[in-house]
Amino acid sequence: MTMDVAAAGTAVRRGSAFNDPRLRSIFYQVVLLLVVIGVGWFLVSNLIHNREVRGIATGYGFLNREAGFAIAETPISYTPSDPYSRAFLVGLVNTLKVSILGIILATLLGVVVGVSRLSSNWLVAKLAAGYVDLVRNIPLTVQLLLWAGLIRVSAPAPRQAANPVPGVFISNRGIQVPSIEDNPIFVWVLIAALVALVIGWGIARWARQRQAATGQPFHSFWVGLALFIGLPLVVWLAGGAPAAFEIPELKGFNFSGGWTLSPEFAAMLLGLTVYTASFIAEIVRGGILAVSHGQTEAARALGLHSGVTLRRIILPQALRMIIPPMTSQYLNITKNSSLAVVIGYPELVSIGNTIGNQTGQVVEAISIFMAVYLFISLSISIGMNIYNRRMSLRER
């Protein structure tokens, strides 16, 4: 009788092992992992088999082959005889160019619109609210097509190009302006500007510490600005002050020489800036409203002007609420730059699609897209998180 009870107890304990939430969770996770591995193995093996049947090469060796196609907008030197890897690099530089400028301009416009929505002026507040409500509810692709169409339709043909300033031409091929001929000294001028920025940052940090310790302010902004202008100027003068300009000239149906702001780049930059600024404006407005109204009242009691109150008191506190969602908008600008393919701007995805169609190695091209966008997004996230930690309140 005792043996039967013991056996029954053992059976009950074994049966109740699966009812343990921890063990059951581990079991389900293992099953899910096996299913994911199985599906991944099936897809990869099927892909490899189909590529072997069609005679499509595997790997990234195609990056060393000659590209054989021209790119309309090349911020770095490129010819059709260069390899595919160089073409990818041109696309990456174009993506970074429009993304970085888009982030800067969208931030400036978004802050202005966000502050305007809180203006006591009825007309300014309503115009800002109308801009936000209108732009946020129109898809970005539609806005890009609209900007591209407006720029191409409104601008004249190259032979009838507007010439508002000598050497500057505006046509449906873009805006052509004189450019300074390349010279090795400009590399040292850029290095001098970066050194001036580092020195200026060090002076600003020292000024803050000095003011905290002694209460005496130091005009670090003007000193930093003088360094940023003066140091590169000294290097440029020491290098012989080269200033030979290349003037655009009409040859056939287009201009040659100088520097060109293409309609595709202008439309892409306008679309990203206007669209993303509408979201940033709401983030800025929400961050300002999150600051206690008592801060504004205290500033008024001290006799501070409204502009000084906003710049020195409200916005620095609002930044703690603004930075995290602002990071998402910066990531969106970078990822939305891939929509440039619809208006013909030669960024990473557009050039990669051409390479994939020529080589048949679409999977490798897409994997390069994924790696590049992942690296850029992680870099932005890490940088913004570091800045967010610097701006956060620290308990003593």
Question: Can you tag this structure with a few keywords?
Answer:
396 residues, alpha+beta, MetI-like fold, 4-stranded antiparallel beta sheet, two-stranded antiparallel ribbon, 12 helices, 8 strands, 6% strand
The Cα radius of gyration reads 29 Å
CATH architecture of the domain at 84-167 and 261-391: Orthogonal Bundle
In the CATH scheme, the class of the domain at 84-167 and 261-391 would be Mainly Alpha
What composes the largest sheet?
4 strands, antiparallel
Note the overall shape. globular
Say which CATH homologous superfamily of the domain at 84-167 and 261-391 is assigned. MetI-like
The average pLDDT score comes to: 84
Helical element count? 12
**Percent of residues in beta strands?**
5-15%
**Strands side by side in the biggest sheet:** 1-2-3-8
The number of distinct β-strands equals 8
Distance between the termini: 69 Å
Describe the structure.
68% of the residues lie in helices and 6% in strands. It has 396 residues and is α+β, with helices and mostly antiparallel strands. The strands form three sheets. Strands 1-2-3-8 form a four-stranded antiparallel β-sheet. Strands 4-5 form a two-stranded antiparallel ribbon. A two-stranded antiparallel sheet has the order 6-7. It has a domain at 84-167 and 261-391: MetI-like (MetI-like fold, Orthogonal Bundle). It is globular. The chain contains twelve helices and eight strands. The mean pLDDT is 84. The termini are far apart. InterPro entries: AA_ABC_transptr_permease_3TM, ArtM/GltK/GlnP/TcyL/YhdX-like, MetI-like, MetI-like_sf. It is found in: Cell inner membrane; Cell membrane.
